[in-house]
From TrEMBL:
<keyword id="KW-0998">Cell outer membrane</keyword>
<keyword id="KW-0812">Transmembrane</keyword>
<feature type="region of interest" description="Disordered">
    <location>
        <begin position="186"/>
        <end position="245"/>
    </location>
</feature>
<dbReference type="InterPro" id="IPR051906">
    <property type="entry name" value="TolC-like"/>
</dbReference>
<dbReference type="GO" id="GO:0015562">
    <property type="term" value="F:efflux transmembrane transporter activity"/>
</dbReference>
<keyword id="KW-1134">Transmembrane beta strand</keyword>
<dbReference type="GO" id="GO:0009279">
    <property type="term" value="C:cell outer membrane"/>
</dbReference>
<keyword id="KW-0175">Coiled coil</keyword>
<feature type="coiled-coil region">
    <location>
        <begin position="251"/>
        <end position="278"/>
    </location>
</feature>
<protein>
    <submittedName>
        <fullName>TolC family protein</fullName>
    </submittedName>
</protein>
<dbReference type="GO" id="GO:1990281">
    <property type="term" value="C:efflux pump complex"/>
</dbReference>
<keyword id="KW-0472">Membrane</keyword>
<feature type="compositionally biased region" description="Low complexity">
    <location>
        <begin position="192"/>
        <end position="212"/>
    </location>
</feature>
<dbReference type="GO" id="GO:0015288">
    <property type="term" value="F:porin activity"/>
</dbReference>
Amino acid sequence: MKTLFKVIKISTEFLSFGTTKYTSSFRLLTSIFIILQLLQTNLSQAQNLERYLVEAGEKNPELKAYFNDYLATMEQIPQVGALPDPELTVGFFLQPMERFMGNQLADIRLMQMFPWFGMLRTQKDEVGKMASARYEVFENAKNNLYYQVKSIYYEMYQLEEEIRITEENLKILQTYERIALSRFKSSGTGGSSSNMPSSGSMDSPTGTSSGSSMGGMSSGGNNARPSVKPAGSVVSDGGSMASGKSTMSDVLRIRIQLKELESNLLTLQDQKALLLTEFNKLLNREMEEAVILTDTLREATIPLDKIALLDSIRINNPMLKMLDAEAEAYEVQKEMARLNGRPMLGIGVNYMPFSARQENGMDMGGKDMIMPMVSVTIPIWRKKYNARHKEAEYNQLAVSQRKEDMVNQLEVEWSRAVRDLEDASRKIQLYKDQAKLAEQTVQLLMTSYSGSGQGFEEVLKVQQQLLDYQLKLVEAIVNQHMSIAQIEALM
């Protein structure tokens, strides 16, 4: 929270740095209130993420470039608000000019032009509006950067959870494998030795009986028999041999799932390395620098209704503020076009030094002359001034149309984000219930399998469903936070 207030304070200082003020402080207060409400939904678990957001804001080169663009535009304000440079004209006579006042030695003129009343203030106001537009571009870039950081952070959390869940399921399947092997061995040694000619080879998935078990699995039955029996062997109809073969096919099914999970685990590890690189580069850090993730990403809710969110987006979205600032700048440009059609005034002085002139043995003249001067420009070519006014009107109309289109796009994005948020919330509750039922079903099936040795295929099927529900639950929670992050970016 301390960092959040720091960011708000910095943003407020940036806004006050310009020459223009926002029409009402209510907008800023509303924005701060909504952001506080959004962050308070899961503040305790977002401390690491908040620290990374601050680091990204300080180090990301693209964001710093946008802010320097804003600062560069601000530096134009003192340029356009200054008077034109005075003009100094100095002329020297190679031979003194004989005049009645004496011999003129030089002609020195100093002239300062003054724009029409209010022109400098209007120019500063226009550049200030454009600087405000630049600042909103920076704000939009910051929001997009924060959204990217949050998105990759949540994706990394999802990957970590998927890796953890996959590893837990690997351990569970390995336990099932030991149980199935134990039942196979016990059933294989429980009958007479004459009924178990291939029990040793069945214990290995690479043996001959292993291949026959795979054939039985593909045919869909646990009662499959090998097509070739050793000579002299006797197979009973319902003895331990049939039970042993069924159990071995169960072992092979487990090993198939184990291989698939191990492959998925390697894929997740590769994706984790890629996301780590993307995340660190957003923060302008070394590619393999460690990232601390939250232990548990809990469910989050937005304390405002949908219409209040939409109203806040319409008021606080940086791109809409940028277009408002541009429209105000073009309004000022129309005033500038009118003032450009007014004359400029010039005030100066003309200094002429004289030396005494000999006439009839007497010094004549020699007194320097100072002459005040006034000049006026005459803007008689009205066509260019009218064209400037029309140009500003067309630009203002274009900005108004762009804003209308931007509002439509933001409403669509808001609608999509709210839909995704509500859908994720529903799925979270669904997958919680489904996972709970699947766990109970697995326990019942395992109890039944431990007693009768039947139904192991159903155990694996429900265990796979449980794995899917666990992964989908993590994905739904992440999607929920993604949707909230998108709404925050829109605001």
